[in-house]
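Students often ask why inverse folding is considered easier than folding. One informal answer: many sequences map to the same fold, so there is more than one right answer. In these notes we will look at a single instance of the problem. The structure comes first.
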């Protein structure tokens, strides 16, 4: 379900991620292109957050959309 939500709302999610985490580039986000695991890995790597923190952040953004 989460991958479906991410894929269906990718453009909006990508915009929110860029607003929240300005250090992410469009190219980096496009490389994940709606794949939750890849997105989580990117955020962990770039932001130095734990997997749990990243999952919660993504869920909060998805719930707000």
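Output (designed amino acids):
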């Amino acid at each position: 379900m989460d991958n479906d939500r991410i894929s269906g709302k990718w453009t909006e999610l990508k915009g929110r991620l860029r607003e929240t985490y300005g250090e992410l580039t469009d190219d980096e986000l496009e490389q994940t292109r709606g794949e939750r695991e890849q997105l989580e890995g990117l955020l962990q790597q770039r932001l130095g957050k734990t997997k749990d923190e990243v999952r919660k952040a993504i869920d909060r953004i998805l719930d707000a959309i």
